[in-house]
Amino acid sequence: MSDDLRGDVMLRVNGADRVLRVDNRVTLLDALREHLRLTGTKKGCDHGQCGACTVLLDGERANSCLLLAVTVDGRAVTTVEGLADGDDLHPLQRAFIAHDGFQCGYCTPGQICSAVGMLAEAADGLASWVSPDLTAAGDLDDEEIRERMSGNLCRCGAYPGIVAAVREVAER
Question: What's this model's pTM, rounded to 2 decimal places?
Fold first, then answer.
């Protein structure tokens, strides 16, 4: 590989500054998995359609398979590995366990990261397509949760547990 295709990228990943020398064509997903060995973020469809690769980019949900690593230089990335505080799981991680919000677990990291971002969006008052009242967009019933999480697919069909887990944390 030619050196003119490589560049330095600085990312703040899970609270730590990391400098990577990567090919300009490397996706954020591949940089996380292959260069930083953060394998919680999964490669599902590699087309941004399944949500398995969802991470938080400056606190907002993002499909890491669609982003070139060089385009997120200087930004903060949170993966599922960065949600827990040591051995203390994030409330959504605990709720997914309590409500059986997974079966095979492949989509779970993306589901959890997406739920963290989605709850922040709702708390900020952002409406979804099914929000009946645009001034009360933070109210999350099951229909709202399903709509807001619709970019994350679960091939096992663990949706009832996923919705219950998100609802539990949203109600706190």
Answer: 0.90
